[in-house]
Amino acid sequence: MSTLTPMMQQYIEIKSKYKDCILFFRLGDFYEMFFEDAEIASAELEITLTGRDCGLEERAPMCGVPYHAAETYIAKLLSKGYKVAICEQTEDPALAKGIVKREVIRVITPGTLTESSMLDEKKNNFLMSIFKEGYCFGIAVVDLSTGEFVTTKITRGNTTSKLLDEIAKYSPSEIIANSALLEDNEQVKSIRNRFETYISHFGDSYFELENARNRLISKFEKSEHGVQQLFAGRSDSKSLLSEEHLWQSASGALLEYLEQTQKTSLDHIQKLELYEIEEYMVLDVSTRRNLELTETMRDKSRKGTLLWVLDRTNTSMGARMLKKWIEQPLVNIDDINERLAAVEEFKNRFMVRMEIKELLKGVYDIERLTSKIVIGSANCRDLIALKNSLGKLPYIKEILKNCTASLNNKNYNQIDTLEDIYQLIENSIVDDPPVAVKEGGIIKTGFNEEVDKLRKASTEGKDWILQLESTEREKTGIKNLKVGYNRVFGYYIEVTKSYYSQVPSSYIRKQTLSNCERYITQELKEIEDTILGAESKVIELEYSLFLEIKAKIASEVSRIKNTARAIAEIDVLCSLAEVADRESYIMPSVDSGGIIEIKGGRHPVVEKMLEEGTFVPNDTLLDMEENRILIITGPNMAGKSTYMRQVALIVLMAQLGSFVPAEYAKIGVVDRIFTRVGASDDLASGQSTFMVEMTEVANILANATSRSLLVLDEIGRGTSTFDGLSIAWAVIEYISDKEIMGARTLFATHYHELTELEGEIEGVKNYCISVKEKGEDIIFLRKIIRGGADSSYGIQVARLAGLPQVVLDRAKEVLKELEDTDISKKQTRSRRGRAPIEGQIDIFHMNSQTKSKDTIIEEIKKVDISKITPLDALNFIYRLQEKIKKGL
Q1: Side-chain half-sphere exposure of 184, counting CA atoms within 13 A
Q2: How far apart are CA 391 and CA 368, in angstroms?
Q3: Out of 271-275, 390-394, 678-682, 702-706, which region has the weakest mean confidence (pLDDT)?
Q4: Distance between CA atoms of 51 and 53, rounded to whole angstroms?
Q5: Residue 786 to residue 736: CA distance in whole angstroms
Q6: 540: part of which helix (H) or strand (E)?
Q7: CA-closest candidate to residue 126, choices 84, 161, 169, 83
Q8: Residues 665, 692: Cα–Cα separation, whole Å
Q9: Could you give the C-alpha distances from 874 to 429, 726, 728, 734, 846, in angstroms and in order?
Q10: Distances, alpha carbon 416 to alpha carbons 108, 358, 371, 563, in Å
Q11: pLDDT (tens digit, 9 = 90+) per residue, 533-562?
């Protein structure tokens, strides 16, 4: 009966523990995969599928990749949603008795990457843990490559919507969750439809409160922050052992997941920060997409986004922090103004800013370099990059010394120049080290006495070899005699065939080749032992010293990370100051009032895309009283959407701490921005354009508050005219009601009937885009003016788009016919309340065959006209016209 070979038995045993992973099994210079793993990897990586004898009757399917190129293949598998378990030899093959021991040293998943080659240096790589209990959620998020670790809970309101908002905020590359979430098919479907993320189940036992708490205590009780300092100095924080079990379960499970997959130190994760969702401006999924904050809607590119405009950072750390600020604007007025004051100082002090930015160009990614050192994946070149970065710190701190803004002073005090770490690396590691750390040549002469002695022995031995070659040639008369070396046979004396007769009897034959013989002598053997012994010892000693150096640096991780954060913040503040200076942005006034007043406001992105000086600025006035809702009318392509987006972006920029594109800006802080812009199907979830629109509107009406800013574009356009107008009308009434909401709102529409709400509903004001007509052509002036538009100029826009003239002519004929029969165009309609008409006759569904004309007229006379709403009147006239046309 066939049995598996010992090596294959070892593979099967290890694979059984990692069934959900592709196992990279180290054999020599390759990672090999077998059986089902091989078939999957062969197809996904487009590599050859072969076979290997495994002791069974049939060969095992097999494929492999070179270990030195493994990262490229691993990245491809991760992008396709696979996990990869790395199995290495854990003992020296030369010392092994039987099969070499092997173990999985790490499981690589999309959310646990730390390799620079697989990461975007300007983006965090977040792993999220979600714990669901009833309608509540605990959320924890970590970036293993930087050590950032945060957590929160969701317990009130539309919790599912808030969960999606938090996922959108972090865009995690991987989510782990308990079974309660994964069993909710609708929620899982919603997450997968909206986000490009890998979501999987993690054992429910790890989310159990006791296990999760123990994991948190084990991790943080010995850290400098301690169990009671988990919340990074929050004055309102509670003890770890409080009833706040949702975030504890999520956080504890996430730590367990990292322990199981990484199998190494997590000391670079220094603290767990607890935050409340309300601490930041809420931006839902649609708003992030519609405002194109960090990626464009069309092609997901960076160019054409707010981040693209504001990013003038010089470090990867700064770029990541700026992205975080854009995605999480502040609502605390003191914090906002502290940032603005720091930006103002850097903007006004040009030379200080330029000197800092020049120094920052030489600063590498200290956060990720430190994480690699702690995790154990750093090489000598990483240490040199860290040293070069630390070398800039004293100069940066010196420049900051005279800054007066409070945030700049805080960063000045937080910067530790870390001279001790700089000197450690400077004294120990050669300036241009090799990539490999186990082949020697990495420690500087003079750092370690034993290394110097061994190197001298090795060098002197090589000098002896050269001298021996010369001596043997003279002694034997063999002119082409040479002394050589290879790794298999060591040192040897080589003699060609023509001189065999002159070979001394003291030479011992070592190897025969086709045209020469190789020999060894006692003297050469002694020299070889000295050289090779010294080289082997010095390589081992250098590697040991390298590990000691890394350990010393890792022990100072807290100092390094605090400094890295300060450097990143300085980089962001200088970047915002640079943009403000170049683009003529002004410092906004931010307060707790309800006024949003902007003069000469510009769209930061559109302005950059157009030729200089061609963008038309516009003013805005929104408040909590007389200017709560601005109804904006005007033709397509005239600039309504651009205008509304620019207001939202200016508010968002002010609250993240940036100067804004305007002549003047007073911003009353908003708690959240909601947008409903554009139309698109959601085919994956089976929703039509109109259903998507209504779902988004429903979310806005359910979650907006009186402190929110709403940007609503063409509500109701996805259905029939009267249905759409009815919905738009009702939405405005709902938003305007202070007892229900009273939110500040920009409402763009083609329903000109809505302009009559000004004067009827408190806080509604009409604005329109000015247009200049020139014959049959129109010119968009892009200027927002008071008043409502009396036409949508749809046919003129169609002409600009290039529709055939015959189509345009026919459209004009149809339009005239419709306008001639539209009695509503010739009447001034009054506004009434929202109450339905009691006892109103069903004029729209009258059966004219069962009632005489006189009967119908008599019934109409009985209707109380004072109770008819505008929509009832419009609908009545429309249906009546239809019946007249049909002779009914």
Answers
A1: 16
A2: 17
A3: 678-682
A4: 7
A5: 19
A6: helix 522-554
A7: 169
A8: 34
A9: 84, 11, 15, 21, 17
A10: 33, 19, 18, 6
A11: 888 888 999 999 999 999 999 999 999 999
Q: How far apart are CA 227 and CA 36, in angstroms?
A: 45
Q: Is the dihedral of CA 645, 651, 655, 656 positive or negative?
A: positive
Q: What is the dihedral of CA 283, 288, 294, 299, to 10 degrees?
A: 170
- Residue type at 53 in one-letter notation: D
Q: Phi, psi at residue 365, to the nearest 5°?
A: -80, 85
Which pTM was predicted? Answer: 0.84
Mean pLDDT of 247-273: 94
Cα(433)–Cα(546) distance, integer angstroms:
12
Task: Assign 224 a pLDDT band (cuts: 50, 70, 90).
Answer: low
Mention every residue, 6+ apart, whose C-beta is less than 8 A from residue 338.
405, 406, 407, 657
Given a contact cutoff of 8 angstroms between Cβ atoms, the answer to whether 475 and 544 are in contact is no
Which residue's entry shows tokens 């903007």?
347
Closest CA to 865 of 832, 824, 822: 832
Count CB-CB contacts under 10 A for residue 224: 9
pLDDT single digits (tens) 462-486: 788 888 889 999 999 999 999 988 8
Residue 500: CB atoms within 10 A of its CB come to 11
d(CA 426, CA 444): 9
Q: Using 50, 70 and 90 to split pLDDT, how confident is the model at 211? A: very high
Locus of tokens 């429910």: 204
Q: Are 237 and 225 in contact (CB under 8 A)?
A: no
Alpha-carbon distances, residue 315 vs 311, 387, 420 (angstroms): 10, 15, 23
Kindly write down the DSSP assignment for every residue of 774-789, as one continuous string: ETTEEEEEEEEEES--
Considering only residues 410 and 115, tell me which one the structure prediction assigns the higher pLDDT.
410
